[in-house]
């Protein structure tokens, strides 16, 4: 693991430790310190991706290791953006303590850090050498398609994490925070869904230029479509049938199982046009 990525790992671990220490010693700024550490880890990962891009002369998105590092970067970035805009939104509504830690989204800070630590730890076991692109990936669509899909997965991971915390909060009396968190789960789902939509479209265009067909029913394509349809139905149920709160949270929990199978399972359990993604 390169030093910049090790730094990210340490910063994310610090984010977890800051929250844990805050709870043990009743420190009022526990979430604030966690978010500062998350931001530092995000900057370190940004440097890592940029440096690897410069050295390789291409977007670092060609294999499992590179895409996983980018996924963690997108996930933490999505969390920080939602955190920022939640503060702006609450301040705009005249909340006196809009910028004070304690908002529902800040409850996700240590869990976001935990997911980042585990993911980077897992990525460290993958092949990280920079190698030449296989012919199928020698295209400008590599950056457009893969970055869009990975960022969409990052938003859906945030939705999953929020749904998991929301489900735990179901036994607790935090009505205002639960409403705010459920809104975050839905908004992150929307962002992830539309990015996944764009990713499928750009993938089809790339497939046509590379293989002469927009759609080949390759396992990765098929499971991406299944995942897309699942989230489309979930959004439809929430908007038209009132599937909110626990029902929608449950949909997000199961939906991310599909995302993970599409991302990992297809790579390692099925062969197809996207088999190079497992390397």
In short:
The protein has helices at 3-24, 30-56, 64-92, 109-123, 141-169, 175-211, 219-241, 245-269. The protein has eight helices and no strands.
Characterise the protein shown here.
The protein is mainly α. It is 74% helix and 0% strand. It contains eight helices and no strands. It is globular and about 60 Å long. The two termini are 16 Å apart.
Rg is: 19 Å
Provide the low-confidence segments as ranges.
96-102
What number of structural domains do the residues give?
A: 1
Distance between the termini: 16 Å
Amount of helix: over 70%
Order of helices and strands: HHHHHHHH
Secondary structural class: mainly alpha
Mean pLDDT: 86
Number of DSSP-assigned strands? 0
Strand content: under 5%
Instruction: Give the biggest sheet.
Output: none
Instruction: Give the overall shape, derived from the CA principal axes.
Output: globular
Q: Helix count, per DSSP? A: 8
